[in-house]
Amino acid sequence: MIKKKIAILGAGPSGLAQLRAFEAARLAGVENLPEVICYEKQNDIGGMWNYTWRTGLDRNGEPVHGSMYRYLWSNGPKECLEFADYSFEEHFGKAIPSYPPREVLKDYIMGRIDKQDISKYIRFECPVRWVTFDDKTKKFTVTVMNHKTGEQETNEFDYVVVATGHFSTPNVPYFKGLEEFSGRVMHAHDFRDALEFKGEDLLLVGSSYSAEDIGTQCYKYGAKSVTISYRTEALGYNWPKGIQEKPLITHFEGDLAYFSDGTSQRFDAVIMCTGYLFHFPFLPDELRLQTHNCLYPANLYKGIFWQPNTQLVYLGMQDQYFTFNMFDAQAWYVRDEILGKIQLPELSEREADEQKWLAEYAQVDNVNGHIDFQAKYIRDLTNATDYPEFAVEKQGDILKQWQKDKHADIMGFREKAYTSTLTGTLAPELPEPWLEILDDSLEHFLNLGFIKSKQKKKTS
Question: Which positions ≥6 away from 15 have C-beta within 8 Å?
C-alpha cells in the first residue's frame, strides 16, 4: 500500500496541532501513517508565539510573520485554550493563575511537543513559493525556498494543509494628511515594546482586541495618554484617567489628528490596530481562500476542507474565541479523514452542510451567541473523533464570564480566577495587581507566590 504524502504549511499552533494529531495516532498503534513534511518559514516552531525584535523583513528577506510583543499577557482565560490531552497543571506541576504572560504560554504550548520527535517532520526556513494541483494525477506540487541550502525544492503531495494563520499581513487604512504626520506611524504588527512610548501621547486606530491590549500595555508602562479611535462603535470600557475613546479620524494636519466629533488633538505616535488580511500568495485563485475575519468562512466544509477540492485543508482560519483546542479538534478531524475513518460526503451534501452553518451564523448578533456558535462548531468536530473530552460548553460559559469581567474592570480582569474543565482546579490569584507586575518573564511569574483563590467556582 502506497503511503499518502501530506504537506503542512506552517509550524505554529495549528500546524503543530496537525503534527500532534498524527503523532497521537502513531502512539496509539495506528499503522501505515502518511508521510508528513511540515514547511516552516521561521527558524523555530511556535508561529505567532515566536517573539522577535525584527520588523519588516527577516534575515532571509522574507516578510516577518510574527506580531508578538514584549509584555503581552493572555487576554483570555487559559482555561479556554487548554489542550484536552495536556493540562497546564501537568505541564507546570502546579496550578497557575488564569492569565499568564507570553513566555509562560509559549512554554506551555511547546511542552506537549517532543521537539526531538517532531523536528524530524519540519523543514525550517522554508517559505512556500507556489502550490499547484494536477487534476489528472490528483496530486499537489509544492515549491519552497530552502534558505538553508539556498535552493528551491519541489515535492508532490496527496494533501496540503494550510496552517499559515491569518494575523500576519497588516490591513493598513489611509487618512488624509497622514504622510505629513511628524511622529511615528506603524501597524500593530510591528509593535514590539510598550516602553518605547513611555511619556508619549499615543493614538490607536481601531476598536478590537489589539487596540484594547496595546492601549492597556502602553498605559501600564508609562504612556502619557492613550486615545483609541473607533470607526463604528466604542469599546465602551470604564477606562482609567489617561485612556479615552474618540470617533473616527477625519484627517491629519502635522501632528494634529482631527476627529469626526469636531475635536482635534496632538499625538507623538499612531498605531494602526486595524486588523489583518487573509493572504496566501503561494496559492493560485482556484485554491485560494478569500474571506474576512469571521467565525465560519465560506467555501470550507466543516470550516476546514476546501469545497472544490477536499485534498486541500485550511486550519485555524476562523475568528477565535477558542484557539489551541479548536485547532486540535480540526486537526484530529482532518487526520481521521486522511486515514479513512471519516468519509466526506459528495459536494452537494457538503455545500448543504456549509449553508446550514452559515445560516445559523447569520442569526447570531451578540458575543454570547458567537461563543455558543463556536463551541457548537467544535463539538460537531470532536463528536466524530477520539479527541479527549474537554467540556467545550463549560469553557464557553467561562468565556461569557470573561466578557463580564472585562466590562466590570478592564484594567483588573486579569486578576480573576477560573476553574479548569480538565482538572477541576480553581486557578490561584496573582499576589499583586496586574498593573503593578512589570516583570513578565517566565521565571519571575512562576516565583510570584500565587494566592489561593477566594472566588467562587461559579464557572466550573
Answer: 8, 9, 38, 40, 47, 161, 163, 315
Q: How far is CA 302 from the centre of its chain?
A: 19
Strand partners, 130: 143
* 205, 173 contact by CB (below 8 A): yes
Residue whose entry in the numeric block shows the C-alpha cell 499612531: 270
**How many whole angstroms separate alpha carbon 70 and alpha carbon 402?**
23
Q: What are the residues facing 228 on neighbouring strands?
A: 204, 245
**Longest Cα–Cα distance in the chain:** 71
- Judged by phi (left if over 0) then psi (alpha if -120 to 50, else beta), residue 125 lies in left
What pLDDT is recorded for position 43?
Answer: 84
pLDDT tens across 338-395, in order? 999 999 999 999 999 999 999 999 999 999 999 999 999 999 999 999 999 999 999 9
pLDDT at 460 over 50: no
Residue 367: which H helix or E strand, with range? helix 367-382
Which residue, 7, 61, 78, is CA-closest to 37?
A: 7
CA dist 377 and 301 (Å) reads: 12
- In degrees to the nearest 10, what's the CA dihedral of 173, 177, 180, 185? -20
67 phi/psi in degrees, rounded to 5 = -115, 15
Distance separating the N- and C-terminal Cα atoms of the chain: 48
Question: Which H or E run includes 17?
Answer: helix 13-27
CA atoms 377, 381, 384, 387: torsion sign: negative
Contacts of residue 150, Cβ cutoff 8 Å, sequence gap at least 6: none
Burial label, 129 (beta-carbon count in 10 A; 0-12, 13-18, 19+): middle
Please state whether the predicted TM-score (pTM) of the whole model is above 0.70.
yes
